[in-house]
Specification:
The protein has about 325 residues and is of the alpha+beta class. The protein is built from 5 helices and 14 strands.
């Protein structure tokens, strides 16, 4: 057999053998789901852009709920809170005055103004009548009469105004004025509460017990509002995030028992299905075998009931078997 013929045979047979081996790949059982080990991460953000004045933790620290982790400069917010409280005190005084109505002293002063106005009216009326009598008997010219009539009308207007003021005080504060004063008070109170919340949020606290995974900023830096300052890993057992094949989705419910096999560990871990998606998605290339990659799957999370004291890194591949789901 010539070398040329041997090369032709190898060229034809080798690809055929490779394709044959690829076609012999053993598919995974339908009740096995593939995925990775994950943990709950919580990102804590800055609510304002004030400078960081203190960072009380470092990466790896264990924190408890409510513990202050980071403090931001609160000087400007304290000033705003002080101004808001002053506005609230003023609004409270105005509301109290409106609800109490006019004071007795205000009513007495208004009545005194009415008496003074009545006296002015009588005086100006007498002067006008006397001038008219003099003109009638030709003891004076009529030029002064116009001036005296103007004084009399002005005195009457002042009297009417003073009497109207007394009537208003005796009737009390109108309901519209009380409502307006109450509205201003509520608005001032809301501004105080907003400033207090803003002040409180200059202190970034731990919402749960956990482990500080990363601290992104340093003291003196000024993060933008909404920027992540640090992340916490929740102090709970890790869980498996897996992709459940479509054929067994309808036979799974939250609480289903599971067996979890983790790369690098010989024994299987007990698990329980805590959540499964209602909507299907295409399986990522790394989650299933070549045979199953085009299938639909449902994202699910399976709790590890007992980690046996082992520290399991995140991202480790896992296989989850649901014993109660038999293949059909």
């Amino acid at each position: 057999m010539t070398r040329k013929l041997i090369n032709v045979i190898l060229t034809v047979l080798i690809p055929a053998v490779v394709l044959g081996l690829a076609g012999c790949e053993v598919p995974l059982p339908q009740n096995v789901s593939m995925g990775t080990i994950e943990v709950d991460r919580i990102s804590l953000i800055a609510d304002n852009n004030e400078a960081i004045v203190e960072i009380r933790v470092t990466e790896g620290d264990v924190v408890s709920p409510g513990q202050v982790l980071v403090r931001q400069d609160a000087a400007r917010i304290m000033t705003s809170l002080k101004a808001a409280r002053a506005e609230l005190a003023f609004a409270r005084a105005r509301l109290t005055q409106a609800e109490a109505g006019p004071r007795v002293q205000d009513i007495d002063a208004a009545r005194a103004r009415v008496e003074a106005a009545v006296s002015d009216v009588e005086t100006s009326k007498l002067e006008l009548e006397r001038e008219r009598s003099l003109v009638e008997h030709q003891y004076a010219t009529p030029n002064q009469i116009d001036i005296l009539e103007g004084r009399y009308k002005s005195a009457m207007a002042r009297k009417d105004e003073a009497e109207a003021m007394v009537s208003q005080l005796l009737e009390g504060t109108r309901i519209e004025e009380i409502d307006a004063a109450r509205g201003n008070y509520d608005l001032a109170q809301a501004r105080v509460e907003e400033a207090e919340i803003t002040l409180q949020r200059t202190r970034i606290t731990a919402p749960v017990e956990g482990l500080v995974e990363s601290v992104i900023f340093e003291e003196g830096e000024r993060p933008s509002a909404g920027t992540i300052v640090l992340t916490i890993v929740r102090q709970k057992a890790p869980y498996a995030r897996v992709h459940v094949p479509e054929p067994i989705r309808t036979r799974l419910a939250v609480g289903a028992q599971a067996q979890i096999r983790i790369d690098g560990y010989d024994l299987a871990f007990d698990g329980r299905l805590r959540w499964i998606a209602h909507d299907a998605s295409y399986t990522p290339y790394f989650a299933l075998t070549q045979h199953d990659r085009s299938h639909l799957s449902y994202l699910a999370e399976v709790d590890l009931i007992d980690t046996r004291g082992l520290v399991i890194p995140t991202g480790i591949p896992v296989q989850v078997h649901f014993p109660g789901v038999e293949e059909q």
